[in-house]
């Protein structure tokens, strides 16, 4: 698959694994249940900002990459962006813990 450029449509049949946020699994040590997220379907006809990082909990990603998106989330959403999503080379459990460590609740209104 070639890289996506601004304005490109997302490819068909792309599914990611993620752990949805629940109040019961809010603690960073809590383990939720991974679910499939059909990005191709969920993002159809939506404006999505998608960024990727090499790995959760790495110094560069935790210090330089993610914080700017968190700090500017309202500004980004103010540009009629429906979803801001991050991809990393980690499993759903690690991404869930990283989101909790950064105050993100894995909801569409968050990153």
TrEMBL record:
Pfam families: Redoxin. Keywords: Antioxidant, Oxidoreductase, Peroxidase, Redox-active center. The keyword Oxidoreductase applies. One of its GO terms (cellular component) is mitochondrion. Residues 5-105 form the Redoxin domain. InterPro entries: PRX5-like (IPR037944), Redoxin (IPR013740), Thioredoxin-like_sf (IPR036249). Its EC number is 1.11.1.24. One of its GO terms (biological process) is cellular response to oxidative stress. GO terms for molecular function: thioredoxin peroxidase activity. The keyword ATP-binding does not apply. It is an enzyme of class 1 (oxidoreductase). It comes from the Eukaryota. Gene3D superfamilies: Glutaredoxin. The active site is at 61 (cysteine sulfenic acid (-soh) intermediate). Belongs to the peroxiredoxin family. Prx5 subfamily. This is Peroxiredoxin type-2. The lineage of its organism: Eukaryota, Fungi, Dikarya, Ascomycota, Pezizomycotina.
């Amino acid at each position: 698959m070639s890289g996506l450029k601004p304005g490109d449509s997302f490819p068909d049949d792309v599914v990611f694994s993620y752990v949805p946020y629940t109040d019961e699994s809010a603690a960073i040590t809590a383990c939720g249940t991974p679910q499939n997220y059909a990005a191709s379907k969920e993002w159809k006809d939506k404006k999505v900002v998608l960024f990727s990082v090499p790995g959760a909990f790495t110094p560069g990603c935790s210090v330089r990459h993610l914080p700017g998106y968190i700090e500017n989330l309202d500004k980004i959403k103010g540009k009629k962006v429906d979803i801001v999503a991050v991809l990393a080379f980690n499993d759903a459990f690690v991404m869930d813990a990283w989101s909790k460590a950064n105050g993100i609740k894995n909801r569409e209104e968050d990153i």
